[in-house]
Amino acid sequence: MTEDARFPAERLTVATLRERPDLRGQTFSSAFEAAVPEFMRHDPVAALYYADRALDRYLDFVLAATDREAPDRVIARATSVPVAYRDGTPGRVRLPPAGWDELIRWADADWRAKRRPTVVGALEIIVLPPYRGRGVSQLMLDALVVNTWNRGFGDLYAPVRPSHKHHEPATPFAEYIARHRPDGLPVDPWLRAHVRAGGRILNIASCSMVIAGTLEEWSAWTGQRFDTSGAADVAGALSPIQVSREQDHAVYVEPNIWVHHRV
Ligand SMILES: CC(C)(COP(=O)(O)OP(=O)(O)OC[C@H]1O[C@@H](n2cnc3c(N)ncnc32)[C@H](O)[C@@H]1OP(=O)(O)O)[C@@H](O)C(=O)NCCC(=O)NCCS
Q1: Every domain of the chain and the residues it spans
Q2: CA distances from 61 to 35, 81, 112, 124, 199 (A)
Q3: How far is the CA of 124 from the centre of ligand 1 (A)?
């Protein structure tokens, strides 16, 4: 990326939704929802975080970024969640294969048990299409790290969704993420952005998101027909979905890779 193409850091204002509750509507507007494939909005675990009343618990961990030249226009968002990890809670000793889903379930269970969180989990960064390719995601990643520190935590764990894996869904995930450029950085742009921001690549989360639906639902989500059982590719998926005509369902299991940012 040339320096000219970069979005100047000083043009971006980042605030939590606690600080700027007026930006909440825009931060979760249809423009952001359209930034991910439709089927990804049907992971039932997501409601434990994104449903209105659940989100009220996490306002200190949701970042909205506005462009100084278009004040109050939200151009990017970052969401994260505090969780108890390695604090003695049973089952919290390693980063789970159920990645993204498990982070949200852990946070929900912690809230119910009034357990004190010890680390922050990064859930997503979304940059609106007109602002992509200009380094905004890296500014958002830095802002997420700073917010983690400001909230009193020293560790940010991200189940990263490599942004170009969907171009080759059949490639085994471990093989894909092992690809490096001659300069030693990952070939995948989003994984590279994490490493450049100081992230350390850890273990694979093989079942980070699990999305199941009837074949009618999958057709509505993707605009595709599923006439045969077995593996099928759908646009935006990092791996094939598994279709069963006999059972009238299909299941998508998304792999992610855990990355640790020591704040
Ligand atoms: C993934 C996403 C956040 C990246 O945001 P962005 O602001 O466009 O990314 P950046 O401009 O900061 O670029 C990050 C890296 O990716 C590279 N990159 C960006 N777009 C690219 C493209 N279309 N092709 C190849 N490389 C690309 C950049 O060159 C940069 O790498 P470099 O610094 O080594 O050159 C954005 O595309 C997005 O919001 N996607 C939808 C939501 C999503 O998938 N989020 C990630 C999972 S939570």
Answers
A1: 3-209+257-262
A2: 20, 6, 18, 11, 19
A3: 12
For range 115-141, the mean pLDDT: 96
HSE of 148, CA atoms in CB hemisphere, 13 A: 29
CATH number of 3-209+257-262, picked from 3.90.1530.30, 3.30.70.370, 3.40.630.30, 3.20.20.140: 3.40.630.30
Residue 53 pLDDT grade (very low, low, confident, very high; cuts 50, 70, 90): very high
For ligand 1, say whether the CB of 193 is within 6 Å of any of its atoms: yes
CA of 143 to the centre of ligand 1 (A): 16
According to DSSP, the β-strands at 70-83 and 119-127 are antiparallel
The answer to whether 73 and 67 have CB atoms below 8 angstroms apart is yes
Nearest CA to ligand 1 atom 23: 133
DSSP secondary structure string for all residues of 176-205:
HHT-B-TTSSBSSHHHHHHHHTT-EEEEEE
Q: Is the beta carbon of 136 within 6 A of some atom in ligand 1?
A: yes
What is the distance between the alpha carbons of residues 119 and 116, in angstroms, rounded to a whole number? Answer: 10
Token readout for 218 is 């999958």
Contact 31, 128 (CB under 8 A): yes
pLDDT of residue 71: 82
State the distance between the two ends of the chain, measured CA to CA, in whole angstroms: 26
